[in-house]
Amino acid sequence: MPVYATRLPRAFAYVYTLRSGASTGDVEWRWQQGEGRYETRLEGGSGDAPRRFALKSIGGFDAAGIAPLRHTDRRRGRGTLAVNFQRDIGAITFSGPQIEHRLAPGVQDRLSWMLQLAAIAAADPARVEAGGGVTMRVVGIRGEADVWTFEPVATETIELPGGATPTHHLLRSPARPYDTRAEVWLDPARDYLPVRVRLSHGAESTALEWKGVIPAAPSDRARP
Fold first, then answer.
1. What is the largest CA-CA distance in the chain?
2. What is the CATH number of the domain that holds 161?
3. Residue 95 in 3-state DSSP?
4. Residue-wise pLDDT tens digits, 78-129
5. Using an 8 Å Cβ cutoff, are 44 and 28 in contact?
6. Residue 183 domain-assigned?
7. Is the pTM above the cut of 0.90?
């Protein structure tokens, strides 16, 4: 896999609108990093299950950018599944399937890939413009380890709650039947983070769209 220059996004806490099938709800996405470590969470739900799922990724950084150590995926009614990036032995293992993959530079989990894509775009915007592209390996909780290549589609202005927003639209086409089709719209004004995401698996689809900033808790606000 290619190794790209990266520039990490600043800490954030955003709300996104979630659309999954006929259901709609809100999810919260948080990212923070410091002292060589990071943690990111995406949690929420829709309809009568406002806390239906929680995704988490923790890890550090290396020459290839974001370097996950552990990714967890908790779903209502199913429990938690995990991916472990065992960097000391160069292996990726799973809490569910008895599968092991070689740990290569730049590999991401099903949450960190969005941050890695943003970091690559921020360091080299030409990667998300016409003629560019980004390739990475993305690992899922069921043992899949697929190559995701994002190709620029267009520069598009989309309407968000904050108004008209110029974005870079990228597409990852599925490599086989029932593989993931991923579309992202990256916002240069927000460190190239995705402000719209569409994930499709066959007839099923999930969409996220930026809604706003989560207000800081009183203890987090600057004091005079």
1. 57
2. 2.50.20
3. coil
4. 789 999 999 999 999 999 889 999 999 999 999 999 999 999 999 999 999 9
5. yes
6. yes
7. yes
